[in-house]
Amino acid sequence: MPSTKENEAATAEEQVKYELMLILKPDLSQDDIDKQLKEIKGLIKDATGEIYHEDLWDVRDLAFTIKKYDKGYYVIYYFTLSDSQKIAEMEEELLLNNVVLRHLIVKSPKHYEMKKLSELELKEGDRRTHRVEKEASPKKQSSSSKTSSKKAKKETDSKPEKKPEKKSEEKPQEKEKPAKKEEAKKEETVKEEKKEEKKDKEKAMDISDLDSELESILDDPDINIKI
Amino acid sequence: MARNKYNKTCEFCDAKADYIDYKNIKTLVPFTTKYSKIVPKYYSGVCLRHQKMLARAIKRARFMALISFVR
């Protein structure tokens, strides 16, 4: 697995900042993880590196499966090192380590601000796509809403508990979409629940059964949809 | 966020960014399409310098399974 490095020919005298991100297997016990991390810390120290910060992200969902794992234990080490030659040795060791699913060593800029995971991660209200379409025609909207519902179905396949709730949410949306162009533009970007709340505020619902359906959805505390 | 063909500004220039962090999923995801492709700079309005940084950051994030390659 290749890892990217910037400006290999950095001045050797200066202390260069690096960061090492690791994905470990998720099914390890805490003791095993501690043991592995000690080993890896040792690797960095052997390469005359000095760790100045470490960041444990805990077990996270991977965006795709790696070696049949769909979760991984993320660790990041920030360290300084003067001899860049030693990184190659370190990397070899990491590649041979079976517990490390993936690793990435990156040179970080001089004035690098470290941020917590909570600041980096996507949250509910965040923009997801960069939309540039000026005005989508109603036909397009309906088609895109269909695709989004298909997607949702696919996602729900993996999580069977949420299936019925999601489907019921999709229906009222599809009916209302042509009425609200602005909303439709953001349809993929904005979370479904939020949208419905907005609609509630902006205009009263025309159809009574839709109203009741929505209420039942909104009242349900179990709903916690992740796109 | 009125950003379209006729109204382009580079978000990263506005923020005077010198480096785009691959860990910062929040800033990377808006510059990918729903199929997780990198948005061309003629759509997003990002300048060339920052587009290159962005592309590198996205590719790193993909490698570390923070962002999917395809959807």
Report on the structure:
The complex is a heterodimer of chains A (227) and B (71). Chain A has 227 residues and is an alpha+beta fold. Chain A is 42% helix and 21% strand. A four-stranded antiparallel beta sheet of chain A has the order 2-3-1-4, covered by helices on one side. In chain A, helix 1 runs antiparallel to helix 2, helix 4 runs antiparallel to helix 5 and helix 5 runs antiparallel to helix 8. The longest helix of chain A has 21 residues. The N terminus of chain A is likely disordered. Chain B has 71 residues and is mainly alpha-helical. Chain B has a single domain, classed as Irregular (30s Ribosomal Protein S18). Helices cover 39% and strands 0% of the residues of chain B. Chain B contains four helices and no strands. The longest helix of chain B has 16 residues.
How would you briefly describe this protein structure?
By secondary structure, chain A is of the alpha+beta class. Chain A contains eight helices and four strands; from the N terminus they run E-H-E-E-H-E-H-H-H-H-H-H. Chain A has two domains: about 15-120, Alpha-Beta Plaits (2-Layer Sandwich); about 140-220, no CATH class.
